[in-house]
Design goal:
The chain is an all-alpha fold. The protein is built from 4 helices and no strands. The radius of gyration is 16 Å and the shape is globular.
Length: 125
């Protein structure tokens, strides 16, 4: 059974993930480029990591941290980093990552050890 704190966190992350994926898809269609395609891929993987947390999978925690560290590093090298918007985004990344760890790590032992892309439905063959 999924704890309520993780359920709420997942719902918030799904909203963030769908908005990021939608935005990156719009940019990739409007102005196709390698960075825009990478953004679509990264946001798709992030959304899959949120789904993994919804399914209570340990791999989703590691995937989340890698993706959000990538967000922070890419923001650090962006020209927007020195603006108020960049500063705000940096704090949002830190806040989301900290909240994630605060709510997920206490339930680490409840998470499953299944690998990504492994069948995660309730039925087994």
């Amino acid at each position: 059974m999924r704890p309520n704190s993780i359920t709420i966190l997942c719902l918030i992350l799904f909203v963030i993930g769908f908005s990021q994926l939608t935005g990156s898809l719009i940019i990739a269609v409007a102005a196709p480029s390698f960075p825009s395609m990478v953004a679509v891929a990264i946001n798709g993987v992030a959304l899959y990591a949120y789904y993994g947390l919804w399914q209570m999978q340990k791999w989703s925690v590691i995937t989340f941290l890698v993706i959000w560290i990538f967000y922070f590093v890419s923001l650090s090298f962006s020209p927007i980093q020195r603006t108020a918007v960049g500063l705000f985004r940096g704090w949002v990344i830190i806040l989301v990552t900290g909240s994630y760890l605060f709510f997920v790590l206490p339930h680490w032992n409840k998470l499953s050890n299944k690998r990504p892309f492994q069948r995660i439905s309730g039925r087994q063959k």
